[in-house]
Amino acid sequence: MFPMYRARRIRRDGIREILNNSLVEPKKLMLPIFVIPGSGKTEEIVSMPGVYRYTVDKVLDFVEEVVQFGIKSIIFFGVSEIKDSIGSWAFNSEGEVQKAIRLVKKEFPDMVVAADTCLCEYTDHGHCGIVKDGEILNDETLKVLNDVAISYAESGADIIAPSGMMDGMVLSIRNALDNKGFYNTIIMSYSAKYSSCFYGPFRDAADSAPKFGNRKTHQMSPFFGYNEAIKEALIDVEECADILMVKPGLAYLDVLKAVKDVVLLPVAVYNVSGEYSMVKAASINGWLDEMSTVSEIFYAFLRAGADIIISYHSLDYAKWLTKNGK
């Protein structure tokens, strides 16, 4: 009790630094990369200042920079001009993501490469599965996702990351991979993925906005509470996922903590596009110090239990650490 107990004693310079926990290290970060058709192009995403889309021939130069700053994992998202009702370009061996995976694994074999496994970027209707009479068909979609996962694994992906929130997707993909001999390919499941307002800039980046309706029939409601997230996580554990994910991050720190408390698997958190763009816009306007803000956010993810942080800020943060000798 005051005056014998004075909390400010351990907040002084010197003592404060000793007691601070370490900042998040670059090896904890996974950087999303958008791959587009064509060659010789690097396009900035208007709604995500500082984030670019790359043609396959430009990916290697960017990954080389990523490696220099200590980031050890990336996740690819494809942006396709070839779209049809089932998203068939997603499992074409000459697809942009497949070619990017092969190039990166050849030049940087130690880089851990994940591939987002969904159909929304490849379907002409913009939904995450096969659609019939306005309904997304779950079981029929699983068959296509299996083909996509196998295609990415054949290209050399270390991690398959199914994000469509189809029921049974982890078990279906695990069986498909194992049947092709890809026993060691990791599945990082988007286990608790919410139908969130924070995805807007991503849909611009990936040209993946639905042409009708919405994704509320398969993504979780932000107002479900914890039970649904925990149930989905435990189902993915039973279906042999290797890593779970909570998405988005900032508004769902409590969900991240709740999931981490009940599973024994690593848990990733996705610091999504809207969260990135809010911080970026505020920093551009001089309202926030960008990297100090990102540091707080990343440490909040770590404190809540994240083992992996997927963020568009990953490279900027790693550069900031290097610049400040941290």
Task: Map the helices and strands.
Layout: H1 15-19, E1 29-36, E2 42-44, E3 52-55, H2 56-68, E4 73-78, H3 96-107, E5 112-117, E6 130-132, E7 135-137, H4 138-155, E8 159-162, H5 169-179, E9 186-193, H6 200-206, H7 226-238, E10 243-247, H8 253-262, E11 267-271, H9 273-284, H10 290-304, E12 308-311, H11 314-323
Parallel strand pairs: 1-3, 1-4, 1-12, 4-5, 5-8, 8-9, 9-10, 10-11, 11-12
Antiparallel strand pairs: 2-3, 6-7
GO biological process, one term: protoporphyrinogen IX biosynthetic process
Binding site for Zn(2+): 118, 120, 128
InterPro entries: ALAD, Aldolase_TIM
Characterization of this structure:
This protein has helices at residues 15-19, 56-68, 96-107, 138-155, 169-179, 200-206, 226-238, 253-262, 273-284, 290-304, 314-323, and strands at 29-36, 42-44, 52-55, 73-78, 112-117, 130-132, 135-137, 159-162, 186-193, 243-247, 267-271, 308-311. 39% of the residues lie in helices and 18% in strands. The protein has a single domain (24-323), classed as TIM Barrel (Alpha-Beta Barrel), CATH 3.20.20. The protein contains eleven helices and twelve strands. The strands form two sheets. It has an eight-stranded parallel barrel, surrounded by seven helices. A two-stranded antiparallel sheet has the order 6-7. Strand 6 and strand 7 (135-137) form a beta hairpin. The longest helix is centred in the middle third of the chain and has 18 residues, at 138-155. The model has no long low-confidence stretch (mean pLDDT 92).
